[in-house]
Amino acid sequence: MAIAFESLYSDIAGRCGKLTVGKKTVKTPALLPVINPHLQLVTPKEMQAMGVEALITNAYIFSQSRQFRERALTEGLHKVLDFDGVIMTDSGSFQLSVYGEVSITNTETLSFQRDIGSDIWVPLDIPTSPAADRETTERELAITLQRLAEAKEVFGPDAPIAGPVQGGTFGDLRELSARKVTELGFTFCPVGAVVPLMESYRYRDLVKVVMASKRELSPSACVHLFGAGHPSMFALATAMGCDLFDSAAYALYAKDGRYLTAHGSYRIEELADLPCACSVCRSHTAEELRAAPDRERLLALHNLYVTLAEISRVRQAIVDGTLWELVDERCRGHPRLLDGYRELLTHAPALAAHDRVSKRRFFYRGDESCQRTEVLRYQQQLARLRLGKNVLVVIDGKVQGGYDDTLFFRPPFGPYPAELRETFPIGPCETPDWDAAMVHQGCRGIRALAESHPKSRIVIAAGPAWAGLIREELAEMETVDDEV
């Protein structure tokens, strides 16, 4: 029952795709809600009615449960949970990270997951704390890789086993782990031990960890971000190339009286109104929800509705080619998410290799937009222009005669020939009045043009509004005054 992944649409490094596990399929990006068999605020059957195609539960809990162990072995996991979609089972690694030990071995937990009919099995990897030193991280990574190799050897190359990527916060170790996981032939690759980073709002470090892992993973691998369940960060994680998320946040937040939104969360006691269109919020006032005897269950339902809606919003943004705009919108909801967004932009050269060539639009949203993949790719492609010996670039000025070619200027991209005026990204580019950041970035496009055409004489004609900045930014280049 091999695991396969197919990408159907892409934007940045995000993919709308299809995960196939045996005869079952899951549309990605997707959320796998965490199910604790002993405490179900929302049942798997209810989740399936809400559109959930896959969920995750803990095989270690089942293996240690007097109530559920024998039932799972005799009836099968799907019947016990009353869910016929894809079920992924964690091995006990979470308990290992919390308690330091578990009473089960790697092969025992994998055998148990097989015997209860799990669709995706997880080996007993070591989730190294982000606070661990390098020596500890290397030692624990070696154990994880040995257990992954053991899983392949004992259960065969086609067993539906996940290959977790570990390595703490050390980028080179994450790369090593991802490379070994790929060499072992894993096609389903969770990025593990990142929950502490998200709990402490270390989104910059999260981006570094995921991007390091992605560098060495196969492009055909389905990437699962373990423990990512807050809707505000789905767009950011998807832009890095994460396809699946799992979390118990919908239930944990409900037990703590917290109300999820795509921008953050609220204490239910703080809400004067319910800013959501789900069935829970349209059938209750804030006062009624606070006083409801089944408040935890209602909050869990709302939290899950909001989370699933954000997954759908991310999918649509990928299809539309507007994922950058969604990332920008979501990451401005919290300063630490903005840190993560800015870190992601430093990886634009790597992301540009995955980004689509043409999109519906480009919305300028401030300085960060100047670093987006569309800008970088456009400026790289300026080398493809065929130019004569004398070239004029008109920046908010007047066209002058006597040149072999005349190019115009659209910041933050830079120079363009008139023939590209209506094409992406020049045509469908929505910007406010020019600002210094976008003009500076456009000037980098002019410099890229000059460097890629050393035999052409590039002359700049700038109007008075931007002449000073242009001469400062491109002091080494030739400028001419506008003709009156």
Automatic annotation (TrEMBL):
<feature type="binding site">
    <location>
        <position position="278"/>
    </location>
    <ligand>
        <name>Zn(2+)</name>
    </ligand>
</feature>
<dbReference type="InterPro" id="IPR004804">
    <property type="entry name" value="TgtA"/>
</dbReference>
<feature type="binding site">
    <location>
        <position position="125"/>
    </location>
    <ligand>
        <name>substrate</name>
    </ligand>
</feature>
<comment type="function">
    <text>Exchanges the guanine residue with 7-cyano-7-deazaguanine (preQ0) at position 15 in the dihydrouridine loop (D-loop) of archaeal tRNAs.</text>
</comment>
<dbReference type="InterPro" id="IPR050076">
    <property type="entry name" value="ArchSynthase1/Queuine_TRR"/>
</dbReference>
<dbReference type="Pfam" id="PF01702">
    <property type="entry name" value="TGT"/>
</dbReference>
<feature type="binding site">
    <location>
        <position position="276"/>
    </location>
    <ligand>
        <name>Zn(2+)</name>
    </ligand>
</feature>
<feature type="domain" description="tRNA-guanine(15) transglycosylase-like">
    <location>
        <begin position="14"/>
        <end position="335"/>
    </location>
</feature>
<dbReference type="GO" id="GO:0008270">
    <property type="term" value="F:zinc ion binding"/>
</dbReference>
<dbReference type="GO" id="GO:0002099">
    <property type="term" value="P:tRNA wobble guanine modification"/>
</dbReference>
<keyword id="KW-0479">Metal-binding</keyword>
<comment type="pathway">
    <text>tRNA modification; archaeosine-tRNA biosynthesis.</text>
</comment>
<dbReference type="InterPro" id="IPR036511">
    <property type="entry name" value="TGT-like_sf"/>
</dbReference>
<feature type="active site" description="Nucleophile">
    <location>
        <position position="90"/>
    </location>
</feature>
<feature type="binding site">
    <location>
        <position position="193"/>
    </location>
    <ligand>
        <name>substrate</name>
    </ligand>
</feature>
<keyword id="KW-0328">Glycosyltransferase</keyword>
<keyword id="KW-0819">tRNA processing</keyword>
<dbReference type="GO" id="GO:0016763">
    <property type="term" value="F:pentosyltransferase activity"/>
</dbReference>
<protein>
    <recommendedName>
        <fullName>tRNA-guanine(15) transglycosylase</fullName>
        <ecNumber>2.4.2.48</ecNumber>
    </recommendedName>
</protein>
<comment type="similarity">
    <text>Belongs to the archaeosine tRNA-ribosyltransferase family.</text>
</comment>
<keyword id="KW-0808">Transferase</keyword>
<dbReference type="InterPro" id="IPR002616">
    <property type="entry name" value="tRNA_ribo_trans-like"/>
</dbReference>
<dbReference type="GO" id="GO:0005737">
    <property type="term" value="C:cytoplasm"/>
</dbReference>
<feature type="binding site">
    <location>
        <position position="281"/>
    </location>
    <ligand>
        <name>Zn(2+)</name>
    </ligand>
</feature>
<keyword id="KW-0862">Zinc</keyword>
